[in-house]
Amino acid sequence: MEHLNFDQRLFLLLNFDGGAVMDVVMTAISGAVMWLPLYLFIAWAILRKYGWKSLVSFIVCLALAMAMADMLCGIFKHTGLLKNLWADFPARHRPMFDTAVRELAHVVSYAHGPYGTVSAHAATTAAMGLMSALALRKRWYSWTIAFIVLLISYSRIYLACHYPQDLALGLAVGLISGGGLYLLWLKLDSLLKKV
């Protein structure tokens, strides 16, 4: 293990075999279906606080933020619409496919693409989390959504899909995308209120 870099060592410290129940829980946390009530709550809270026009523009801007975050991550994994934008970028294997750690890692499923940098899960959830926290401006919600974003990000380590660095970069992409589209939403919402 001496030849491993810090990111690989940190991954192995955080990745472990929690048993069949933990595997199912982390797979669910990493998926989208489990979080449908959260998405509905966000929509309801935005509707209640701002009205239906603001909700529509928020959903459009949120979808754009998440799509932008996902596409930016795809550049580095050579997937999606922008996969050829930086064709020479040396894509980094997911831990489950990385020969340096794959024999030491707990892997739940190999049904993933080969490359993991930058994490689209971290990016899209961070974009959603930041936009909704800024829009709702409730301390309890901000802490809750931050915990959820970190929990989803951690599930990607548990499932051996990403290294911590992949997640940190994904979170940065998501915060930039979410922050930028939140500002766009404010302008769009202001225009809609004049109509």
Number of helices: 7
Count of domains: 1
Measured distance between first and last alpha carbons: 63 Å
Q: The biggest beta sheet, please?
A: none
What is the residue-averaged pLDDT? 95
Please describe what this structure looks like.
- The chain has 195 residues and is an all-alpha fold.
- It has one domain (22-194).
- 67% of the residues lie in helices and 0% in strands.
- The protein has 7 helices and no strands.
- The model has no long low-confidence stretch (mean pLDDT 95).
What's the quick description here?
By secondary structure, the chain is mainly alpha-helical.
Keywords:
mainly alpha; 195 residues; globular
Give the topology.
Elements lengths: L5 H9 L4 H12 L5 H15 L1 H26 L42 H17 L2 H20 L5 H31 L1
Helix pairs in contact: 2-6, 3-4, 4-5, 4-7, 5-6, 5-7
